[in-house]
Design a protein that fits this description.
MetI-like fold; 310 residues; two-stranded antiparallel sheet
Length: 310
């Protein structure tokens, strides 16, 4: 009977600790807010305050000088009837449709290639990442010279192999294509580095076990590598969508939104309306619409990701 009298109480360190007193929790909360206060202050001063001012100005007619006139929602009704705004929105969507998947899968391919042992691997990683750290203005100037219709390197190479050089500056479709190519060039290196960091966390034992079981390279990528990289892919998709709606300096330097409005994006159109046409209230309304679009797309992406993980 003594054997049956065994105590099953958990050890002392495994027992639930009593809740901390309210004063202790209060001190911990105050300490946490004190440490985050500088960052919150900077974030509020440079994010929330400008956003609130933009929203307020979007209901006004304001040239940047003198007093602003309150006009209600007229700026937003003007947007609905503005064909240039819809053209800029369509161009922005087209840019995102090409930019996000190309830079995503291109970065993944480069990361998988440069994750292996190969000669000059470090040099190749640096070369692919250099466009990311180049300023947008510098990249735009380089691209403007390369895609010049008469003296550009691209058309010279095309003529050398017997191909006609596209009219990069005077035709709408080639101009948009050049913007897409340069934007991908400046973003693919970032995706490559992020994927490289994520690939370091994929256990090599899983690939070895898959090879022993007879899985080929594509099966390993589809069944092991890609599922393990899903959180990274989700982050890069959201980041790419937001970035595609914020492209400004490349387009401003390369094409200025032309020819016509073939490469005008929402950001460049808002800049033109606010600082060239002096319609800062209307430009603020475009900014608010852009903010709402990006927020909606981000929320949709988060909900779709939650459904996949559920």
């Amino acid at each position: 009977m003594a054997l049956l009298d065994v105590r099953t109480e958990p050890p002392a360190q495994a027992r639930a600790r009593p809740a901390a007193p309210r004063a202790v929790r209060w001190r911990e909360a105050v300490a946490g807010y004190a440490f985050t206060a500088p960052a919150l202050a900077v974030f509020g001063a440079f994010m929330f305050l400008p956003l609130a001012l933009t929203f307020m100005i979007s209901f006004q007619e304001y040239s940047g000088f003198g007093r602003a006139e309150w006009i209600g929602a007229r700026n937003y009704t003007d947007i609905v009837a503005d064909s240039t705004f819809w053209r800029a929105l369509a161009n922005t969507v087209v840019l995102g449709i090409f930019l996000v998947p190309i830079s995503l899968f291109g970065g993944l391919g480069l990361a998988m290639l440069l994750n292996r042992a190969m000669p000059a691997r470090t040099l190749l990683r640096a070369l692919f990442y250099v466009p990311v750290v180049i300023s947008g203005v510098s990249a735009g100037l380089i691209a403007k010279w390369m895609f010049n219709e008469t003296l550009g390197v691209v058309n010279r190479v095309a003529e050398a192999v017997g191909l006609p050089g596209p009219a990069w500056q005077s035709s709408g479709v080639p101009a948009m294509a050049s913007v897409i190519v340069v934007t991908v060039w400046t973003t693919i290196g970032y995706n490559m580095v992020v994927y490289l960091a994520a690939l370091q966390g994929v256990p090599g034992e899983m690939h070895e076990a898959a090879r022993v079981d007879g899985a080929n390279w594509w099966q390993q990528v589809r069944l092991i590598t890609w599922p393990m990289l899903r959180p990274t892919t989700f982050f890069l998709v959201v980041w790419g969508i937001i970035g595609s709606f914020q492209v400004f300096d490349l387009v401003y330097v390369m094409t200025g939104g032309g020819p016509g409005n073939a490469t005008t994006l929402l950001v460049t159109y808002a800049y033109s309306e606010g600082f060239a046409q002096r319609r800062q209230g209307y430009a603020a309304a475009i900014g608010v619409v852009l903010y709402v679009i990006v927020m909606v797309l981000t929320v949709v992406q988060f909900r779709l990701n939650r459904r996949r993980e559920a």
